[in-house]
Amino acid sequence: MDFEASGAQEWALPGYGRPESQNNRPEPENSKMQNATKTIPSTASASVRGTARPPRARCTIRGRRGSTTPQAHLPGETPAKAQWRNGKEPAGIFKLPGPFKEIRDAGSSRRPFGQQGRNDVFDDICRKTGAYICPPAGDQEAIRLWGGPYQVSQAIELIQSIFARCESLALPKERKWTRTTAYSVGKEELADQLELEDALLQAYRKDPGPNVTCFEKLLFLWPKEGPSLKNALGAELEALDPIRVRFECHLFVLDDLPDHICVVGYAQGKTGLIVQLLRNKWAEIMANSLVRSKLYLVEPFESGQGEVSARREGGLTRAAFRANSLNDTDMQIWADRAELIRSKNNARLLNVVDRFLKGVIYVRGHLRMRVNLGLFVLDRYRVPSEGKPAWSFEELWEMLLHENTKGRLVPGLKIDKTQLLPRLLAASDLLQPYDRTEDSLRQPEPAFSVNFEFTGQQNSLLRLEAEFAKCPGAHDYGMIHSRWLKPRKVGHVQDSRSPLQVGVIDFERSDWQLEVASLEFYEASAVEKALREFSQTIKFKPNDAMSDISATPTRKVLFHSSAPVFRFIEKTSIRYRLKGTRYILEIARYDEYTRKSAIGPASLNLAATFEEKPRISWGASIFDFAWDNLLGKHANMSVGQTARYDPTLQTFFPASIETDDKSQGLWEFVALVKRVAAVLGSGPPATVKSTVTSKEANGRSASPASSGNARALDADLGTLF
């Protein structure tokens, strides 16, 4: 057999080199017509191996090798491409302004569709429209398209849009001045608009005069209770500008009617809405001035009476209790007295919390409710009378109720860290795992966050809070949340009183405080660029001991040493659920890192390194996610609006069973707090004889219940405590 001839016959076999078409696949109509006219291939027409083949230009009519008969489109091939492969004439032609090579080279550096390959643009158009484009050769001046009329027209429109975008990107350099001019024009238009709005506001703050036709007029009497009209709203009632803009009305005060707000409007039917907003605004001002409730209580000692002295440690002052031994008769008298004090404490607590919740719906801002456990410190207090070294219990109780007494709760649990986790594991009747899939109280996965303090202008501080979590599917940790808090003065952790603060000193348990704090966040856009860039360079370095909250802490946060950070505090926390309730208990360890040579923010030395061993403090919090959902609505309230929920005790402290007593849920919650405080306390203090002199009383040390191994942390932790 002649292998050359057999090879030529082999190339002429129909369908050689491609998979056979399946019998159950429907053939298109054009394929049937082609098969009807198909002729049997002849070996004479086959090219002999080794003979020269004439060159073939791109995009010319072509057929299958060894046959000139058109075939149906290949599997996975579009009908448009089948038309091109079978040699049909193009259904459309797009004329190019010049050779394709010149156009391609001129637009290679400014492709609007990204860094694509040679034919990727044509492939994208084919995929989007269904048409087929044969990529032109370098010297061709037309683009040929195959497909249906609609497909071809859509493809031509896309090609035209691409050329238009290329031309827009190919603007001459002189057009750069046009863009600058356009920016200046837009800036001037914005300035003109702001100037016009300011002029309108100035006009709305004044009397329009008798010559102006108005549809509605109103006089609103400002109540005498609370702040005066101008002190509350401003000299020109600037606080009512949102109402002026919304209703396009004049709000002003006449000289002969200094206690009235005059309303002059141009639209009918708006008077009722304006009156309601003014009433709500007055209620909001009253809430801000009167709802701020402060109450300091002290729990009576159950095993006896004693004396309380002011103990100063680490720049903070806290009460230190010394119990005196009593006989049976005195113990019975004290028990009756202690029960009376508890009843008065409960009455005061119920009155303050109930009154606050009724007025909190008018307060705007970022509000946050928590019960914190730690150490209660005294910032302002009255010294014992007549030069005594200590207060009696009744004197301390009365002093805490005085309006001028100031105090706050800081992190600092009285329990030793070696006893903390064993006590939590033993409290199975009180706690349950935070993760509902867990069945034991073994230490859960900790959460990590950091509080940064920066030195700012005028000896103030700027704070950054950052939260870190493990990245999904990886072992690395990344920042998931960050927030800036407004500066505060050095030495004033609480410059303004919280809307609600109920502090309780408990010498047998841990001190605790129910607080609704008003947080003031700082806009990130107003922060210096260097600090914003710093927040993006913070790294979190995991270590082997980080999963154990009671292990020796190791620094985890890394950043450049030249950053203007005065100190930073790393927080490691674990969470449990209070059994049978929706309340969450969070136990937190705070690791404080400061620069070695820094005595205070004013003496910050950026060249100094941070201490390797941190100062450790412990704290705890109890909260409910429902509190965050309710109080979170206050951040988006506009002027004159109120929160849309029922401000009652049952809303924030629901009872475990249905009852007519509205305060039942609150007392159940207080009982839970006291049980947690007992777990986190250091136990009852030792008793001493009552026959001691003043000098002995002045020189003796506080009991373990009031001091213990607790270390107070004096820091503004914001949302971290």
UniProtKB/TrEMBL annotation:
Residue ranges, compositional bias (Basic residues): 55-65
All residue ranges annotated as the DUF7905 domain in the record: 334-658
InterPro entries: DUF7905
Polar residues: compositionally biased ranges: 20-48, 690-709
Any Pfam family hit: DUF7905
Name the record gives this protein: DUF7905 domain-containing protein
Lineage: Eukaryota, Fungi, Dikarya, Ascomycota, Pezizomycotina
Membrane spanning residue stretches: none
